[in-house]
Amino acid sequence: QKNSCVLPEDLKNFYLMTDGFQMTWSVKTDDTPMPLGSMVINSVSKLCRLGGSSMYTLPSAPTLADLEDDTDEEGNGDKPEKPHFDSRSLIFELDPCNGNGKVCLVYKHAEPVVSSDTEIWFLDRALYWHFLTKTFTAYYRLLITHLGLPQWQYAFTSYGVSPQAKQWFNMYKPITINTALLSEEADSFVNKLDPNKVFKSKNKTPVLKKKPPSQPPGSQKSHTSMTSSKTSSLAGS
């Protein structure tokens, strides 16, 4: 009501279920927990609008609209038209990204009437826009599947993630960071099973029949003595 716009249906249903979302996870290095993943959706009270106020408290300080680069290519080919910091767009911060940029909910057409057509964009630290998804639901899935790894949003930019972030990706999301390799070699991440080798028949070794167990020494002696006694009695007769 304050900004005279209606939330998209999927985001409205999300806020009806929970007022924001935050999940962090850590890894242990030398038995010391180190914060790593962070997944954040700002609450309604923190769903602040960008571009409406000055960046500084000084008089006549520049706003984001003053710093916007109008020379950037927009709407060429398959590239969607980028958002604007002036009155042409309404931009709300969904995720501060730990200072690495901002994930924003963008109403791209605010003049003369605010359209319900929204998109999710990533604003990097150099104030360049990068398109993420058309809907909040699709972005939420991206957030979960990327595990909230540091700078994961930069995987959708032309310059990619930093070398440090790439190490975390190689450890926890190797397929995501190696999409080029996956497209070139479709079987590179697939376990290959050759049934001919696995179920190959082997030459069975013949099983030797077990010999009957030998008699105890005592019974053998008694049997020998009985035989010798019978032989001597036959010789005498």
TrEMBL record:
Database matches in InterPro entries: TPGS2 (IPR039231)
Organism, scientific name: Zosterops hypoxanthus
Renumbered residue ranges of the record's region Disordered: 65-84, 200-237
Upper lineage: Eukaryota, Metazoa, Chordata, Craniata, Vertebrata
UniProt biased composition (Low complexity): 217-237
Protein encoded by which gene: Tpgs2
PANTHER family documented for this protein: TUBULIN POLYGLUTAMYLASE COMPLEX SUBUNIT 2
Composition-biased stretches (Basic residues): 200-212
Acidic residues bias locations: 66-75
Protein name: TPGS2 polyglutamylase
